[in-house]
Amino acid sequence: xxxxxxxxxxxxxxxxxxxxxxxxxxxxxxxxxxxxxxxxxxxxxxxxxxxxxxxxxxxxxxxxxxxxxxxxxxxxxxxxxxxxxxxxxxxxxxxxxxxxxxxxxxxxxxxxxxxxxxxxxxxxxxxxxxxxxxxxxxxxxxxxxxxxxxxxxxxxxxxxxxxxxxxxxxxxxxxxxxxxxxxxxxxxxxxxxxxxxxxxxxxxxxxxxxxxxxxxxxxxxxxxxxxxxxxxxxxxxxxxxxxxxxxxxxxxxxxxxxxxxxxxxxxxxxxxxxxxxxxxxxxxxxxxxxxxxxxxxxxxxxxxxxxxxxxxxxxxxxxxxxxxxxxxxxxxxxxxxxxxxxxxxxxxxxxxxxxxxxxxxxxxxxxxxxxxxxxxxxxxxxxxxxxxxxxxxxxxxxxxxxxxxxxxxxxxxxxxxxxxxxxxxxxxxxxxxxxxxxxxxxxxxxxxxxxxxxxxxxx
Length: 459
Description:
Helices cover about 0% and strands about 40% of the residues. The protein is mainly β. The strands form eight sheets. A five-stranded mixed beta sheet has the order 29-30-31-1-32, with no helix packed on it. The relative contact order is 0.16. The model is unreliable at about 1-55 (pLDDT under 50).
């Protein structure tokens, strides 16, 4: 499957831009064209020596100093093949990365204990953050969301018999406190920055026929968008109404994909709680998911179909011909599809084939929104594309407990040249305590990262 996150998760980044923040080269898979040599820096012309002046004459003025040579141009991200460094390894149940504004957080769980670490811009460990959640059993920190206004917010999750449950916590001087605005039985699906610094969340409350899916303000003033119009239009019971996806645009407009005896598009402009409701185009489409830019332009996905979106109206986009089930994704108004070992890009002129290393089936793609993709192949090898269009293998060095390359679990590209890879492996070195133990590792392209052993960082 195509994995796309701008990491909330190594997903979903969720970037809270409206909230306040605190504080080697791998062998190429094919031979690239030799880079153009940098323009030579012109040296200043030497000043010719003057004939000695008579003693009675005034001494000649000194020749002007040569002008300083211009500094070399900085290397653009993705202009050169990247290399991966081991950042974390060892016994952890999972490991993941979240970005909040310009800060990076690594979170993992080891020996039934949560760890949350803040990293520097180069990948170095800045500080472990004390973690301890009140009165709550859970499996993992799902992701860090942001700050409101100066408290770090995290979402934790637990896999239960009735599905995955998530709760929202905020960091205070007295420790981590659960946000209980909507009651104990609230399951958080996602959250976003909203109007006047508030936080809008997609939540479910209650169980079975008492279940209610809604949008609610969980921090800040005011109420969330109302779904009353959708319920009246679709004539469904409250427990039958289901929010499939939500898009929050740059101007505060909220859009929701809602299932209520049919598929509906609900739109709320800032200040309009009632909003507008429109039946989703197409008899064969029910639930759908947005792939829109900050202005509301782009595509939606419905099942295995890609649809071009225009103010709620959609037209199907035929996939390029080939073998295998097409797997779509879209970012910033551009659609992509993986089909077997081929990658395609959909632009103004239709589908364009992107040459990839031959004979290697693609497992997932990341970094599409930055224009230079990274690929994880089915054999767990990884390659990146540089700005000249060439592909380069990016090997994962073995962790200290193993002599073999690890198996890639997730591949995320946060920004051009800034990639993170989560993996798993089995301890294999003779005499090692971890021999035969399932372990995890996290790799990064950031040059300042040094290997950290899971479980050894204390706040």
